[in-house]
Amino acid sequence: MPPKLKLTAITLDCPDPRALAAFYQEATGHALAPGSNGDFAGLVGEDGLVIGFQRVDDHQPPRWPDQAAPQQFHLDFAADDLDEAEALLLKLGAVKPEHQPGGDRWRVFTDPAGHPFCLTRG
Fold first, then answer.
1. Are 38 and 18 in contact, with CB atoms under 8 Å apart?
2. Is 5 a residue whose pLDDT tops 70?
């Protein structure tokens, strides 16, 4: 029987790990991981899952929905009040692209480093 794997971290490439960690920390309330620095910063959720941000020189962000520089992956977050969460995310520096394929079900944003993420009702 194969071993069970537990997801422990998701790491995003970016030009400025501290800045991107600060964006997601304000959005989620997750704690900054000890040892976070200019090359790697992490946020720890209540369940122990780490969202990491690693510095990549000459980072080329995705240009969603343009597939010439595809998203490769995205994060999903749930919120009870989508309008309130959207206002917070925009205030923190997220961008809401014009193309919104989710209708009433979800909203697409990009973080300050260009990574797409979705906001759903939760």
1. yes
2. no
Alpha helices in the chain (DSSP H): 17-28, 82-92
CB atoms within 10 A of CB 100: 12
Angstrom distance (rounded) from CA 64 to CA 43: 24
Q: pTM value?
A: 0.81
* Mean of all residue pLDDT scores within the chain: 91
The candidate with the shortest Cα–Cα distance to 17, out of 67, 54, 66, 58, is 54
66: phi then psi, degrees, rounded to nearest 5:
-65, 120
Contact between residue 13 and residue 60 where contact means Cβ atoms under 8 Å apart: no
Q: How confident is the model at residue 3 (pLDDT cuts 50, 70, 90)?
A: low
Q: Cβ distance 77 to 118 under 8 Å?
A: yes
My answer on whether omega of the bond before 17 falls inside 30° of 0, hence cis, is no
Rg (CA), the chain: 15
DSSP string, 45-58: -TTS-EEEEEE-TT
pLDDT in tens, 77-115: 999 899 999 999 999 999 999 999 988 888 999 999 999
